[in-house]
Structure formats: C-alpha cells, structure tokens
Design goal:
about 75% helix; mainly alpha
Length: about 90
C-alpha cells in the first residue's frame, strides 16, 4: 500500500503522469527494468519537450542510456527504410 503513495508523490513532485512515476519507482527499486520498443517510442515523443536527463529519470536510466537508445532506434528505422526502398 505504501508503494502507491510513493508513486503518487513522485508524480506530484516531478509533475509527470502516474505511469511515468511508476517507471521512476521501478528504476529506484529495480524488479524488472526492461525497456521495450514502446518505451523507446514514448521517449522519442518526450524528447520533443524534455531533456535526456529528465527522460532518464522517468525510466530510471542515465541520460546517456536514453541518448543511446534513441540513436539506436533511429539507426534501426533508417536501415529498415533503406531496405524497403531498395526492394
């Protein structure tokens, strides 16, 4: 029960959604800190208005890790687009 209050407080103090606060909580108390493709897509959207550091705090990873994931995502999508054009 206390976990819910902690997550709620994180959401309030960081001015983020409850889902994002839950991700912060998971980063502080790692149980399963796997970031999936949907998370990276969300990071891309957040990057339009947020810094790498702020995004990293939400997901419980460093700003460098956010940068690397977004760079890898962009590279993979560019490769896929090139293969589609070549076909």
């Amino acid at each position: 029960m206390n976990e819910n209050w902690y997550i709620f407080c994180i959401a309030i103090f960081k001015n983020i959604t409850v889902e994002q606060a839950f991700n912060v909580w998971e980063g502080l108390n790692p149980k399963n800190n796997s970031i999936v493709a949907a998370d990276v897509a969300d990071m891309r959207e957040m990057r339009k208005t947020m810094t790498y550091k702020a995004i990293g705090e939400i997901y419980g990873i460093t700003d460098g890790a956010v940068f690397r994931r977004l760079k890898d995502y962009k590279r993979k999508n560019r490769s896929t687009a090139m293969e589609t054009v070549a076909s």
